[in-house]
Specification:
The chain is of the alpha/beta class. The protein contains nine helices and seven strands. The longest helix has 17 residues.
């Protein structure tokens, strides 16, 4: 079992081709949402719908299994209408909750990882710093590989402080702006799976692009 942590829709877009390759090779994968206020409708999200056709894939949100997250999700939902009245107030609340980890339980994560016999944890580099530090502590305590994929909203040089966060593997799309980390043993030049011919063919099927062209 492998866990891919996501918190933005672009994270799903970045990680889906890697996940698709794994599940098609009989590897079990959980995509785990750790954004308290981001709901992913599995029926309307075509990537999730596509991946979910494979029995090796499962999508869950932290508030599906954690009472702590469920409580805070309900609590902040009571104020959502108020904050949505103003763009700035609503954005400040969303940004605050996106960056924080007070609603995430390290012990709950560790229990879930052990229970499911998880072999690796994967994140994208634009995950907020506090969440990366939390998962880095977990990987150290459980001695489990942490894989970091470059991408998401971070398209320029690496912003991760590798003195604080030490992924076992850093999957780089290219060498641009990576001079300070390219010598690390964890650095792997991986390319961009989203632009592989195999995934582009899958995208055409997922979004029915051929029908739209006619």
């Amino acid at each position: 079992m492998h866990i891919f942590f996501v918190d933005l829709k672009i994270s799903i877009d970045m990680l889906s081709p890697i996940i698709n390759n794994l599940i098609n090779n009989n590897q079990k994968v959980i995509m785990y949402n750790i954004n308290l206020i981001q709901d992913y409708n599995r029926e309307n999200n075509m990537l999730l719908r596509f991946l979910s056709k494979n029995p090796n894939f499962k999508f869950i949100s932290d508030y599906d299994i954690s009472l702590r997250s469920r409580f805070f999700k309900f609590f902040f939902s009571l104020f959502r209408l108020y904050f949505n009245k103003g763009y700035y107030s609503g954005y400040r609340l969303w940004s605050f909750l996106w960056k924080e980890t007070f609603y995430l339980s390290k012990n709950k994560f560790k229990y879930f990882i052990k229970k499911n016999n998880v072999k690796s944890l994967t994140i994208v580099e634009d995950l907020p710093a506090k969440k990366k530090l939390l998962l880095n502590r977990i990987k150290n305590e459980l001695n489990i590989p942490l894989i970091m994929a470059h991408g998401g909203i971070n398209t320029i040089p690496s912003t991760t402080k590798f003195s604080e966060i030490t992924p076992n593997y850093y999957l780089a799309a290219n060498n641009q702006g990576k001079e300070l980390i390219s010598s690390l043993k964890s650095f792997k030049l991986f390319g961009s799976p989203r632009y592989s011919k195999k995934w582009i063919n899958s995208i055409e099927q997922i979004y029915l692009l051929e029908e739209k062209k006619k």
